[in-house]
Amino acid sequence: MADQYKLFINGEWTDSEEKVEVLNKYTQDTYAEVAKAGEKEVDQAIEAAQTAFKTNPMPPYKRYQILKRVSELLQENKEELAKNITMEAGKPLKQARTEIDRATQTFELSAEEAKRIHGEGVPVEAAPGSENRMAFTIKVPVGVVGAISPFNFPINLVAHKIAPAIASGNAVVLKPASATPISALKLAELFEEAGLPKGFLNVVVGSGSTVGKQMMEDSRINLYTFTGSANVGLKLKQNTGLNKLILELGNNSPVIIDKEADVQMAAKNTAQKSFAFAGQVCISVQRLYVHEEVREEFQQAFIEAIQELNVGDPNDAETDVGPMISEEEAERAETWIKDAEKEGAKIIHGGKRNGALLEPTVLTNVTKNQKVVCEEIFAPVVSIIPFSNLKDCIDELNESQYGLQGGIFTQNIDTAFYAAKNVQVGGLMINDSSQYRVDLMPYGGVKGSGWGKEGPKYTIEDMTEERLVVMNLNQDV
Amino acid sequence: MADQYKLFINGEWTDSEEKVEVLNKYTQDTYAEVAKAGEKEVDQAIEAAQTAFKTNPMPPYKRYQILKRVSELLQENKEELAKNITMEAGKPLKQARTEIDRATQTFELSAEEAKRIHGEGVPVEAAPGSENRMAFTIKVPVGVVGAISPFNFPINLVAHKIAPAIASGNAVVLKPASATPISALKLAELFEEAGLPKGFLNVVVGSGSTVGKQMMEDSRINLYTFTGSANVGLKLKQNTGLNKLILELGNNSPVIIDKEADVQMAAKNTAQKSFAFAGQVCISVQRLYVHEEVREEFQQAFIEAIQELNVGDPNDAETDVGPMISEEEAERAETWIKDAEKEGAKIIHGGKRNGALLEPTVLTNVTKNQKVVCEEIFAPVVSIIPFSNLKDCIDELNESQYGLQGGIFTQNIDTAFYAAKNVQVGGLMINDSSQYRVDLMPYGGVKGSGWGKEGPKYTIEDMTEERLVVMNLNQDV
Amino acid sequence: MADQYKLFINGEWTDSEEKVEVLNKYTQDTYAEVAKAGEKEVDQAIEAAQTAFKTNPMPPYKRYQILKRVSELLQENKEELAKNITMEAGKPLKQARTEIDRATQTFELSAEEAKRIHGEGVPVEAAPGSENRMAFTIKVPVGVVGAISPFNFPINLVAHKIAPAIASGNAVVLKPASATPISALKLAELFEEAGLPKGFLNVVVGSGSTVGKQMMEDSRINLYTFTGSANVGLKLKQNTGLNKLILELGNNSPVIIDKEADVQMAAKNTAQKSFAFAGQVCISVQRLYVHEEVREEFQQAFIEAIQELNVGDPNDAETDVGPMISEEEAERAETWIKDAEKEGAKIIHGGKRNGALLEPTVLTNVTKNQKVVCEEIFAPVVSIIPFSNLKDCIDELNESQYGLQGGIFTQNIDTAFYAAKNVQVGGLMINDSSQYRVDLMPYGGVKGSGWGKEGPKYTIEDMTEERLVVMNLNQDV
Amino acid sequence: MADQYKLFINGEWTDSEEKVEVLNKYTQDTYAEVAKAGEKEVDQAIEAAQTAFKTNPMPPYKRYQILKRVSELLQENKEELAKNITMEAGKPLKQARTEIDRATQTFELSAEEAKRIHGEGVPVEAAPGSENRMAFTIKVPVGVVGAISPFNFPINLVAHKIAPAIASGNAVVLKPASATPISALKLAELFEEAGLPKGFLNVVVGSGSTVGKQMMEDSRINLYTFTGSANVGLKLKQNTGLNKLILELGNNSPVIIDKEADVQMAAKNTAQKSFAFAGQVCISVQRLYVHEEVREEFQQAFIEAIQELNVGDPNDAETDVGPMISEEEAERAETWIKDAEKEGAKIIHGGKRNGALLEPTVLTNVTKNQKVVCEEIFAPVVSIIPFSNLKDCIDELNESQYGLQGGIFTQNIDTAFYAAKNVQVGGLMINDSSQYRVDLMPYGGVKGSGWGKEGPKYTIEDMTEERLVVMNLNQDV
User: Fold this and answer.
1) CA C305 → CA C328, C346, C365, distances in Å?
2) Is the CB of residue D125 less than 8 Å away from at least one CB of chain A?
3) CA nearest to B135 within chain D
4) Are A465 and A173 in contact (CB under 8 A)?
5) Is B245 on the interface with A (CB under 8 A)?
6) C248, β-bridge pairs
7) CB of D119 less than 8 A from some CB of C
8) What residue ranges do the domains of chain B occupy?
9) How far is D265 from chain A (nearest CA, A)?
10) Contact (Cβ atoms closer than 8 angstroms) between residue B213 and residue B148
11) Which UniProt keywords apply (chains A, B, C, D) (predicted)?
12) Predicted confidence band at D264 (pLDDT cuts at 50, 70, 90)?
């Protein structure tokens, strides 16, 4: 029988009638069953969070201790947690292990940042007529954070929401992706072991259309943090009153291979970064803009590097590319490829699908209005687009509705910083692909790619309010 | 004949068929006629802004020079600008003069901040595996700013939008309040004189339901900055896609008079700050929470101080309280007062209305669900609410949907900082009323009072995007 | 036979001919013998540090790991380390335990700050003519840090020097106080266990006149960090060429008891903070300025609180006040007391000496030029000085050559912040004594009390150099 | 008869018996006579500064207004001030004009920074046991600043000292270089016109051995700021007790021409920046490290660019290179050149001297221990040093006792940032020479090049003390 999991509400493991079935994404067998949150459970979770926040504030050092302990527990349970990710997400084991290491960093950093929250002096005495004032700001938590997380990093993208939320003194209601809820529940177990007081973390499992919708409409939630599609992000913006938002949405990440690039290095790097977790990463390379002078050399080296990737069973520690999250998603991506093909695109590598497993696929001869180029494909599919003039290339790639991260490979300093100044993204990588991320850095997009930044230090800024305190002082003492 | 004004689009003064009539708010005569923007003009304005932004970026020092020049021109034209405010807004002349002085500060500060926009280093080399990286952020302008400004500070709340927008390198489309559009047009003249290149500032006059709506739906606008009601703020959030927002909305500002307050000082201060510009200030004192031990003394001193206020013709340089923006608005406020009276509230001062002129009004015996208490009254009306326990008092006043600014009068340091930590507002004034503002400070609310902060330094942060640049460096040189 | 200790040079435990004898400060018996560094050993230590720094740079995360591990080892070895402090310093055991807890914090914070060292953007493009530039700063370690530490916190004041030094990537040569060298050597053992590469920490034991002098004259040391007397601090400034300095020197800490103070609380607090470790703390209360209106009440409560202190054997876990560091030092303090007495001072508590043990002593009727007032007494001796006018009181206490920390007890916010603005110290405590310190805060004096700040974040700023990098960029790419 | 100038003490123009004769540096005729400060005048100046500081503090906005007005007056008097610099310093007129423009910036920036001085919050509540605390820092002026300025920028290096000093609320005693005192006195006139209260700026003229020495020994001066030789800097460090210091000392600036440089651009740039004001600039190019692959091309282009420089009468607006400050100095430089020649160096351009006028001189075949290489030559003399391996080149140039600024010309991003990380200087310019400076940037050296940074924002940090204020708050209110 499949493993059974309960909800985590107000410090209690809570069962419910209905269940969410979680599949082994490689075999498509049932892997586990999880209690499904109904209206009552969601309400209890929000109530618990609000009560915890209002009645039991945690001092910063205690938050530090709990989060630091969770970061240690992640390492102590690394193998088990990684295997669970591979099961419920279909993520190749070695990438799952990396995810645990990164989540460890996310918790460690959040713990440390809990001790560094502070305001700043405001020189009101420099305004005419305010010579006798003194002012500074303090940072206060927003209250209840509603977190909605995606399937692709079932631990680390949950970590990026709840660790900074706890670090800044908030209480959390978390709805993990219904495809991959178990990682979040296991994380709740670690929090319990680490001594988190009840109510500060509540995990409710269910679909966006029920649980998500209810959370969206409950005004006790003060801030929503969401990673997922631009469509859902927009809905959140429209339906959450005047509450605060952090949105990490899509991208169709561009990477430029300039004529002065180290082409071999660029080819190896981008081959790795285009297909990790079957391209289901927000900053996975999707659009490769290659200068005509080096296109042939690059294309050859790129294909060779792809051929060295191991495709198949994610449980195999050598696998680089495994299945997509579902057969439906793989079919969708296949359709986009075929649509492009009909309009003249050529598949120069891959293109075949077997169930949820789509081969690493490389297209050429694409045009800029094809979905494989202008939409987020979120699949192991990359298009090579030639260019001859860098400025024109950048103008074109900026036409995207998205702007999360991008990359450029070039040895030339002027070229590199022209790109830095002009590519409209939240992060531009020089001599690296768009897919570079370390957890301490500010991460977040512009345009349709979102609002606010992740990275514990930055998220904490968004999850606290800065209150100005001005003293009108009498010097006659 | 009334003065005639045109729109300012792409550096040209542009007429149109339809006109907006602007009244002298004290006499209710026609004061001026202004060209009304139709669909075409709004489109041209947005187009002009986008083109200016894309094709003619201004270096920081040039932005500084233009904004500094405007700040000087404000002083050179102070008397004329102040008189115009008095005419179109009904604001007492001395308060109008103060507004010009403050706008001078807003431009001066924005000019200076234009030279101080910078990113910061990001220690990516401290992440495991990233030892060879170096990273920093740069700040880039968002693009086209759509600004929608209110009637109550026709110069300075326009200044807080367009000066930081220009300072950070953006182009602006401004829709001023249709009741008071002339100040904005006069400001555009000063910009023209100061040498602003065409297209960077465009002023379109018209109603929210036409011009405002069109702006809201035009995706070429990258960021909206709005001051006004929570209702309209919410609409903007819901109808502007994933674009960025700065919202400065309402408040029903609370001020606490503690038992250890300097009661006489508190009474004089709050009497001034409850009725300035007929209470039509976002942070005007509305709820006076007075400790029972000092209530009698306070109430008497407060009424005495009100009696010293000059009420009447705003053109008189001695006037403290003039008309409200319209008779309709005065009637609305009167209705709220009467509703409260029916439920037992007592008017202990004022309460009478003559056209748009409502007397400074003080209520007691109110209850917390009456509109005069729980909604933003935006009129010269204040309620005295007694309390005996500070913590309970703060819990109660925090029930408001708003949280812009508040104040506390107390000599006790523990009491003062208990309030600072616990009153849920964007700014808490110690020994001053909620209505303290200098233009350099961060200004903005929590909860239903808005998003983002004004104050040039802070607005610039919101009007720029922080882009991360990471270099993957090879040390084998 | 007494325990034997060796020097720690280039990762090796190194013996030498001559020995330093370390006494049990309570019994004055020999407690241990430590190898004494000669000219050769000091030279080797500096050489080792320079070589480690130049040839084996540690990336930030590795520094983090080592320092975090040391902080854990401090807790694992807490009891042993505390007992050693009691032995070699005569510090009461409970204060020694507190010191280990604080050192744990110092290492933990330093570890974390190692991951947060970063520069900032510099807006050179805002200078006329520099529109095409981009600039930022990076922080680089200074190189070899020469640390000279005092006897009074044999672990934590060593920690405040070497933990930030290692955190910022420097190598260290440490000369601990010759009265208390064993704590430093034990700390070196913990570093060794934590995996510090050889050469990054070197401990050389000996007197200031030999080892200290040699360090001072060796130009391979790039920065000196010293805690001790103003005299020695001045010598360091004069004899270290143009090298950098951090100096934490003396103080005769003033605390004000205002007429609006919570007198009972103030009396208890200051009684504790005047005599901890026999007053041998840089920020020990020495001058108590008490308002005449509350003087009698304060004095009585103060004496009562002192009578509750346990005086005697530092090994006893209940002891509050133990011996001074040496009989000579106790005699010196006794002389100062007697000198004051001759000039009219009255001893209202204590005053007797038994070997190195001097009773908690309270003086009244002192004058401002007596050594007990104007010099740093560094003994369990405090003077009560009455005042009637706060401003005059502050003017008088500011006459001190020192300015490390001070305190004021008052409930009045105006009084509190008048003191904050006007008392010339590095840190002013409101409703606490001068002796408040947590390890994360900036700590350091003005005037003759020193240069630079301690607190890991702040020390790291002083132990790194900020290098500006400006790129002259060509936009024709 | 020569113009007569008086001292500026306590707001009065004060004459004295003795005079300092100021020469026209081109003709060596007497240009002016200036009152020479004796012991009495220096004492009065310091007394006046201390009294002004203690009794008449200026609020920030007033400091802003005065400094801003001085910046305007500099432009209004630009031509006169520039001509005076040319006279007393022998600086070519166009460079003198540039200096006035830069000083305008220095004052403008200082004025603006006066309004931006603020502390920051300190999260003491994150320390175990301090949960009830709240803390922040405030910045207070140091008091009396003693400024000693050099001859080479008689206006702008005075500006970098006194403008930030006034901006931060200090009072100043200035001793300008005795060769060029008139610029400083004219600046004092502008301050007077701008309304500076008496005592905040005092100018005393005289030699270092009398006036400088007296200032050094007067303990009423709280901070010394000095630009000049390393020798005098060291003396200041040794003889000013524990007072604070800002030292801007010498350099023998290195610039690297890499094999991937834009050689033509590099040659033109460095030719300009090696000989401006006859090389008497702290960051004048002195050591040109040229990669062997491009050496020939560079050398030819460099000599050609030098030949286009106009050498001669500094009063001529076309002149690029004029006389040195004195014949003695020109003779000293000539001797260094000849010494190098004797040891095998070759003069490939210039080398001849006519009075104080030394031709732009280029040496090759130098060795690293010759004075022309390892000492600061402060003359129009540059050495070309070939290299073949970049890392070795950087190791070698780092052997210098100095480290102010350096430059590298290269198009390769890895090379550029290898240099940025490894060249031991305060500022490294990529694709520009060492001589790049704008007044807003942090400017200052490492090693023997000094302590502290100039640039108004940075100097203000050094000229204020950061005081921590901690509140111990009782939540039972």
Assistant:
1) 28, 19, 21
2) yes
3) D417
4) no
5) no
6) C227, C450
7) no
8) 3-250+445-468, 254-430
9) 14
10) no
11) Coiled coil, Oxidoreductase
12) very high
Distances (CA, A) of A269 to A262, B90, B312, C48: 11, 66, 75, 39
One of A88, A108, A248, A359 is an active-site residue; which one? A248
Cα–Cα distance for residue pair B86/B25, rounded to 1 Å = 8
Is B392 an 8 Å CB contact of chain D?
Answer: no
Which phi and psi angles does A244 have, rounded to 5°?
Answer: -80, 160
**Any idea which residues of C carry the catalytic annotation?**
248, 282
Candidates B141, B151, B146; CA nearest to B57 is B141
3-state secondary structure of C409: strand
Q: Residue D349 is encoded by which pair of tokens? A: 């351009």
Side chain identity, residue A312? G
pLDDT of residue C1: 66
- The 10 Å CB-count burial string (b at 16+, else e) for C157-176 is bbbbbbbbbbbbbbbbbbbb
User: Which of D112, D240, D242 has the highest number of chain C CBs within 10 A, making it the mutation to test binding with C?
Assistant: D242
What's the rounded mean pLDDT across residues C387-401? 98
Give yes or no: D466 in active site. no
- On the question of a common fold for B3-250+445-468 and B254-430, the answer reads no
Return the residue of C nearest to D409 by Cα.
C472
Which residue is closest to B258 within chain D, CA to CA?
A: D477
Tokens of A440: 């301490």
Question: Which runs of E-coded beta strand occur in C293-431?
Answer: 346-349, 353-354, 357-358, 361-364, 381-387, 405-409, 427-430
A475 at C interface, C-beta within 8 A: yes
Which segments of D115-228 does DSSP mark as H helices, in order? Answer: 156-167, 182-194, 213-217
The 10 Å Cβ neighbour count of residue C399 is: 10
Confidence band, pLDDT 50/70/90 cuts, at residue D36: very high
Nearest residue in D to B474, CA atom:
D414
Ramachandran class of B352: left when φ > 0, alpha when ψ lies in -120 to 50, beta otherwise: beta
DSSP lists the bridge partners of residue D136 as: D121, D469
DSSP state for residue C261 in the 8-state scheme = S
Domain D254-430: what homologous superfamily? Aldehyde Dehydrogenase; Chain A, domain 2 (3.40.309.10)
Task: Report the pLDDT averaged over residues B143-156.
Answer: 98
Q: ipTM greater than 0.90, yes or no?
A: yes
* D325 residue type, one letter: I
Q: Which of D112, D418, D471 sits opposite B417 (nearest CB)?
A: D471
The answer to whether D202 and D45 have CB atoms below 8 angstroms apart is yes
* Per-state percent for chain C, helix, strand, coil, to nearest 5: 40, 25, 35
Give strand pairing partners of D223: D145, D244
Q: What is the gyration radius of the CA atoms in chain B, in angstroms?
A: 24
A374 assigned to active site: no
Name beta bridge partners: B469.
A428, B136
The string of pLDDT tens digits covering residues D162-189 is 999 999 999 999 999 999 999 999 999 9
- C297 has a pLDDT exceeding 70: yes
Distance in Å, alpha carbon of A60 to nearest chain D alpha carbon = 5
Two tokens at C262? Answer: 């919570």
- Per DSSP bridges, beta strands B405-409 and B427-430 are parallel
DSSP string over B21-83: EEE-TTT--EEEEEEPP-HHHHHHHHHHHHHHHHH-PPPHHHHHHHHHHHHHHHHHTHHHHHH
Mean pLDDT over the full length of chain A: 97
- Using CA atoms, how far residue D433 sits from C198, D213, D273, D366, D464, in Å, is 39, 36, 7, 20, 32
Of the candidate CATH numbers 3.40.50.12780, 3.90.550.10, 3.40.605.10, 3.40.1690.10, the domain formed by C3-250+445-468 belongs to 3.40.605.10
Contact between B477 and D391 using a beta-carbon 8 Å cutoff: yes
Size of interface A-D (CB pairs under 8 A): 86
What's residue A1's pLDDT? 65
